[in-house]
Amino acid sequence: MCGIAGFLSPIDDPARATRVLAAMTDAIVHRGPDDAGHWVDPAAGVALGHRRLSIVELSPLGHQPMASASGRFSIVFNGEVYNFRALRAELEEKGHAFRGHSDTEVMLAAFEQWGVAGALTRFVGMFAFALWDGTARRLFLARDRMGEKPLHYGWCGNAFLFGSELKALRAHPAFDRVVDRGALAALLRHNYVPAPHTIYEGIAKLPPGTLLCVDPARPGAEAPEPYWSARRVAEDGFTHPFPGTDAEAVDTLDRLLHDVIRDQMLADVPLGVFLSGGIDSSTVAAVMQHISARPVRTFTIGFGEKGYDEAPHARAVARHLGTEHTELYVTPQEALDVIPRLPALYDEPFADVSQIPTFLVAHMARKHVTVALSGDGGDELFWGYTRYKIALDTWNRMRRIPAPVRNALAAAVRCLPPERWNRLFAWAGPILARYGRASVGDKLHAAGGMLAAGRLDAIYRRLVSHWPDPAAALLSGAEHGTILTDPDNRPAGAAPEQLMPYWDLFTYLPDDILVKVDRAGMGVSLETREPLLDHRVVAFALGLPQHMKVRNGQAKWALRQVLYRHVPRELVERPKMGFGVPIGQWLKGPLRGWAEELLDERRLREQGYFKPDIIRERWAQHLAGSRDWQYHLWDVLMFQAWLEGR
């Protein structure tokens, strides 16, 4: 729900400050088309702006910015606090009175009662907010524990700017930031810009689970402080795993999911669920339908291209559950028509190709509902990604081989270019194609890279990299590090198999998956909710022993057992399918002209970010079919398209 924006700076002209604030909120009108609110305090030099998507308390009593009963606090808030009714009852017992029925009003009373940090620990939900404390003359920014809702901030001269999306900050006249070349390098590796960085120098993403206190008298001194630590929760789970039986674990997870999903079905507007037919979304839909007294609305999209269509599986699950199911088969042209919208939609370069179908299913759902639940997070929490097994198996084999031998093997593999390996092993191509779209040569070079990596974190980083050496494609820019490049940032008590999902909780999940879903949903004014990422579910999953996640070679064991209570296993037992589109084929076909223009050698040279010869070589190889560079090229194209439209 909603979008927020604002600033701290000296205000000489209140009317002009209000116009600037309105421009910032107008830039994110898609996040809240139902209402707008602006509050400026010239004496304090603070401006808070809000765009509202009405979900709970549809009356004007939910209007923001909202002030606390005492007048001390003023807030703009994006998200939902699902336990606000229980908090309200507790606060009423302590003497607080309420005018309306919004969670925002309850939050303000909680700040009055327990202080900012104390109230944060009591909130269960997804949120990003800016809170002005008029007594202490401090601005507080906070973000939910898992990072479902976004928040960006930074100093531009003597103005401290913040907003749900970067486009809100860009609307302020003080904004004048250059591209962060280290962030661009990280984009090429990961297909997203990892937090706390953004594509702009000096502008940051507030990390999940943190609180930032800004003192206008001490500009630049602020630093995010955690009020909830995924690391501490993980360490507790790893060192004190769930002690019960299999049956007790499944029963506990079942009860927990029912409680969480019941809370997240709270809305005063129509609500539904994205359904792919996979384990995660099917579990969410099944529990929702079990709770609901009427058919739940489910939504899926299908593609005609072989290997990309999950619609029949979702349809079978929906039929069994008895949901009110809506599906849309998307033509290639409809998917292609989304691409020009991507730079503005995602606000900074973002190159996860599943951004396209995610937007399309959100767009379809918004025609029927205002809130949609999703199954995101199940792969990270219940060991669902195939890459976890690949990395672990690789590391287990490699650590038995002496380092000099590993390095020699890696060098031997890399002594021939992939094209030469392809010719030598042309007979094996059809066999190896069963294990992915990459060519024989690409697979061998990837294996060589992992052989040279040596450590599990290095192997996993190599496995999740698009460009394993981004510097090779860039004219300048030292790549920003992540948790994968920090050997000291490892949780105590973690077994090797627990490390990879843990790393994803800090990187891929908040910076790719949740960005993708939030921007796609809010781009069409649809609120998305992630019940599997409730912090109680996260804590429980992190404490599950590995044999309750993976059994007989099958991932998500405990989650599957919950699903099997509602859906026959034969409806969901199938190989995992990604939520993607055939970008590689489209780049050779209908997108070729668009890509050729963005990858024009003269343009690349004049812009001064990429090495034109490297980019042009890979583009030519992809067009010729000698190499599959679809993901490498998409990273570059998404930056180029963003650069063109910013």
Structural account:
With 646 residues, the chain is of the alpha+beta class. It has three domains: 3-228, Aminohydrolase, N-terminal nucleophile (Ntn) domain (Glutamine Phosphoribosylpyrophosphate, subunit 1, domain 1, 4-Layer Sandwich); 231-383 and 501-571, HUPs (Rossmann fold, 3-Layer(aba) Sandwich), CATH 3.40.50; 582-646, no CATH class. It is built from 28 helices and 17 strands. It has a six-stranded antiparallel β-sheet. The chain has a six-stranded antiparallel β-sheet with strand order 4-5-6-7-11-12, covered by helices on one side. Helix 9 links the parallel strand 14 and strand 15 (324-330). Helix 8 (279-291) runs parallel beside helix 23 (557-564) and helix 18 packs antiparallel against helix 19. The longest helix is centred in the middle third of the chain and has 19 residues, at 246-264. The two termini are 25 Å apart. The model has no long low-confidence stretch (mean pLDDT 92).
List keywords for this structure.
single chain, 646 residues, alpha+beta, Glutamine Phosphoribosylpyrophosphate, subunit 1, domain 1, Rossmann fold, 6-stranded antiparallel sheet, 44% helix, globular
Instruction: Please mark out the parts with pLDDT under 50 across 5 or more consecutive residues, or reply none.
Output: none
Into which percent range does the helicity of residues fall?
A: 40-55%
Total number of domains: 3
Q: Which percent band covers the strand fraction?
A: 5-15%
Distance between the termini: 25 Å
Largest sheet geometry: 6 strands, antiparallel
Class inferred from helices and paired strands: alpha+beta
Computed Rg = 25 Å
Assign an overall shape: globular
Please name the CATH architecture of the largest domain.
4-Layer Sandwich
CATH domain class name of the largest domain: Alpha Beta
- For the residues shown, what is the average pLDDT? 92
Number of helices: 28
Main-sheet strand order equals: 2-3-1-9-8-10
